[in-house]
Amino acid sequence: MAARHFFLVLMVVCIWAFNNVAVKWGLLELPPLFLTWMRFVVVAIILVPFCRINRQQFPWLLLLAFTFGFMHFSLLFVGMRYTDAGTGAIVVQLGTPIAMLLAMVVLKEKLKMVQLFGILVSLSGVVVLSGSPTIPTWWVLCLLLCSATGWAVSNLIVKKSPSIKPLTMTGWIAFLAVPIVGVASLVMESHQLTALSHAGWRGWFAIFYSAIASSIVAYTLWYMLLKKYNVNLIMPYSLLTPVLSVLMGIVVLGDSLNSFKIIGASLVILGTAIAVINLRNLRMHARFPRLRRR
Q1: Three-state SS at 112
Q2: What gap in Å lies between CA 243 and CA 246, rounded to an integer?
Q3: Directed axis angle between helix 95-106 and helix 113-129, to 10°?
Q4: pLDDT of residue 272
Q5: What residues contact 20, with CB distance under 8 A and at least 6 apart?
């Protein structure tokens, strides 16, 4: 990998990791569903005017607006209100092994024994993590697991859907999620506009960082890198996100670090790595690197 692309990968991972810190800042001043709604409004305003879709793509995007926009993001923000940045990032990392299990059941994709072992290790990490004081009650863990499941289901939908450009998908999912999340916020929260009018720099920073840096910039760079390099070379770097989230949470937010979080996080990340990293493809890529055009 070219040095500039290596640093781009690290930058994307750092952006995603710091997004958890930004969200925690935003949750100090804004209700979680309203914060999610504001994020989608900003993304939609920036992207939708420049993106076009057709009738065939619309129903798939509407479905993704619920599974990815509401299930994943909304439940993640609600769950993170009651836990720390690192714990939220660790549990949501389970979206990858959950997606693999769903693909096995729904799409009849075959999994190797080593992949199943990795998924089992990841799930055992959540069992350990459930004993951590950073997860105050069982329903907070359930919210985060539902968020991870929403991400996993969304991946299956994207796999079955017609081809949609990444930025078009990001913009229209946000646009179609605006009414869904907006209704949820109206029903379950109160005094949203008052909170917004009194929000300081942390609340506004969370909105714009989550929308522009995390959703638009990071995902655009990530998809660009995936087009240029082997997936098995790029995907392992995403496992750094929860690790960096834990470290940033400790340094920036003063989050605690206990044995449950250390052991649980290690099991989740190790299990996910075992499940997703194809060592044979990595070795082949190292022996026969992609030739550069001159």
Answers
A1: coil
A2: 5
A3: 130
A4: 78
A5: 80, 85, 86, 88, 89, 245, 248, 249
Token pair recorded at residue 283: 């070795």
Residue 132 main-chain phi, psi, to 5 deg = -75, 140
User: Which tokens belong to 227?
Assistant: 């087009």
Identify the pLDDT of residue 40: 95
By C-alpha distance, which of 233, 225, 243 is closest to 280? Answer: 233
Query: What contacts 161, CB < 8 A, 6 or more positions away?
Result: 57, 60, 64
At a CB cut-off of 8 Å and minimum separation 6, what does 72 contact? 95, 147, 148, 150, 151, 154
DSSP state of 83: S
Low-confidence ranges of the chain (pLDDT < 70): 1, 226-227, 230-236, 277-294
Q: Which two tokens stand for residue 247?
A: 């470290």
Q: Which two tokens stand for residue 24?
A: 């925690």
Place of tokens 């059941």: 105
The whole-number pLDDT of residue 194 equals 92
Taking alpha carbons only, the member of 156, 154, 139, 112 closest to residue 274 is 112
